[in-house]
TrEMBL record:
The lineage of its organism: Bacteria, Pseudomonadati, Pseudomonadota, Alphaproteobacteria, Sphingomonadales. SUPFAM superfamilies: Restriction endonuclease-like. This is UPF0102 protein AQZ52_10235. InterPro entries: Restrct_endonuc-II-like, tRNA_endonuc-like_dom_sf, UPF0102_YraN-like. Pfam families: UPF0102 (PF02021). Belongs to the UPF0102 family. One of its GO terms (molecular function) is nucleic acid binding.
Amino acid sequence: MSRQEAERQGRRGESLAAWYLWLAGWRILAKRQRIGAGEVDIVARKGRTVAFIEVKWRANGAALDQAIDARRLRRVARAAEALVPKFAGAGDDVRIDVILLAPGHWPRHMANVWQP
């Protein structure tokens, strides 16, 4: 897959994940938040919880199990830490989530995947 095709698929996955979250009662605060430390695909809020969400799209369900690793989560955690003041207030719960997507599979939303 070319770099352009991978980028297109990634954006499509992020859009699908945002719809999934919205249907589950989350409010999307931002998408593709880049900061020197890394990038957060989606920032969403539900009640007093603010989630910094990494989205992974794979061509098949079998590839989802290897889509996320500690190195990627560390990068998201560094970016989220820098973005917390912008999106979360005093008393808010902050967490890092992952949404895994593949054609023909329901989205897999893994909540609070990062514990420093």
